[in-house]
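Query structure, 354 tokens:
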């Protein structure tokens, strides 16, 4: 079964549904979760011949909409059934569902021999068209992330909320674990998704790993998602992602599962500091007429090399765009500033906005 939470997605929804139709192993059931829609989302879904589930008085955004749908649908599904949760603005490549199903079948056929069975299979994503230079930055960023995941043989940090597949019995166990206190439940409702977190996909991934499951993003599970087309939208998105990730690991504390995530946050903080020192040294050299220290010249060379090598699969046009230091440095500096803001907001516990 495929679940597509949708809030006013009449434009994107047809493409998402078409991508499901083109799957090498299409889902046997598709349900569009219409959440407080004011456009023709429900009509579009009906015209495509799929089911529509309309939320009632939902104020908890995507997580709340999914909880309402799962509360209604899960009791009628078998424990071994699979549920795809997919954003309505994403497009799955044709091999996505078959690849996810194959990996899940393989781990459960192994039985007790599989010490950490798969709790879910997600994907790596590329950026959709549009957005001008900002869109190109994001497409390059996503390409680098996908490259890193492939090099780790699908070992992912999070099951992306854009599209992930879960066995029904795993979703039931997550809900039970929230009710009996094995994993955090800030909402206190004992449902699959915690509605009081900013990044429900990241939190669910942590819940699965704390329950003894592994997560995977294999190469054949690839999708395309929308890019942010304005800088303010990008900042809001990344601020939510970063602060949500910080708050998620704080909720779980320091455990064997979260220790690598805490380490990454420490590295991120050091990265922000390094960026400040780097830009400060350049500004000082320009203003005073001093020569730039060889260390920072070497750092610039390494940065350029990394930018070029990690996007070469996207073609020479992207390589040439990534080569000039100042071009992508602007994008990276903005992301570093967002990280600094997220750290500050989380430490001061400022009001969260989405």
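Result returned for the query:
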């Amino acid at each position: 079964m495929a679940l597509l939470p949708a809030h006013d997605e009449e434009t994107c929804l047809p493409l998402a549904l078409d991508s499901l139709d083109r799957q090498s192993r299409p889902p046997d059931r598709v349900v569009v979760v219409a959440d407080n829609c004011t456009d023709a989302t429900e009509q579009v879904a009906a015209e495509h011949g799929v089911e529509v589930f309309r939320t009632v008085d939902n104020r908890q955004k995507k997580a709340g909409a999914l909880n309402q749908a799962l509360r209604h649908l899960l009791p009628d599904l078998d424990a071994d059934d699979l549920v795809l949760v997919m954003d309505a603005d994403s497009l799955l490549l044709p091999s996505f569902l078959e690849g996810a199903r194959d990996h899940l079948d393989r781990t459960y056929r192994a039985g007790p021999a599989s010490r950490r069975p798969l709790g879910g299979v997600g994907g790596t994503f590329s950026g959709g068209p549009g957005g001008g230079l900002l869109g190109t930055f994001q497409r390059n960023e996503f390409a680098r992330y996908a490259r890193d995941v492939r090099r780790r043989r699908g070992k992912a940090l999070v099951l992306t909320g854009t599209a992930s597949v879960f066995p029904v019995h795993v979703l039931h166990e997550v809900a039970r674990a929230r009710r009996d206190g094995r994993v955090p439940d800030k909402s206190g409702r004992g449902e699959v998704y915690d509605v009081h977190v900013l990044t429900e996909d990241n939190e669910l991934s942590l819940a699965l790993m704390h329950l003894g499951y592994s997560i995977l993003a294999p190469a054949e599970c690839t999708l395309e998602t929308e890019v942010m087309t304005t800088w303010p939208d990008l900042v809001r998105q990344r601020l939510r992602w970063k602060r949500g990730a910080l708050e998620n690991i704080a909720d779980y504390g320091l455990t064997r599962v979260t220790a690598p995530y805490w380490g990454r946050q420490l590295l991120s903080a050091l990265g922000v500091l390094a960026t400040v020192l780097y830009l400060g040294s350049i500004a000082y050299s320009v203003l005073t007429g001093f020569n730039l220290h060889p260390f920072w010249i070497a750092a610039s060379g390494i940065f350029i090399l990394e930018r070029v090598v990690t996007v070469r699969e996207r073609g020479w046009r992207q390589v040439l765009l990534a080569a000039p230091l100042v071009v992508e440095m602007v994008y990276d500096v903005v992301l570093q500033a967002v990280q600094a803001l997220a750290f500050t907001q989380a430490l001061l516990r400022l009001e969260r906005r989405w």
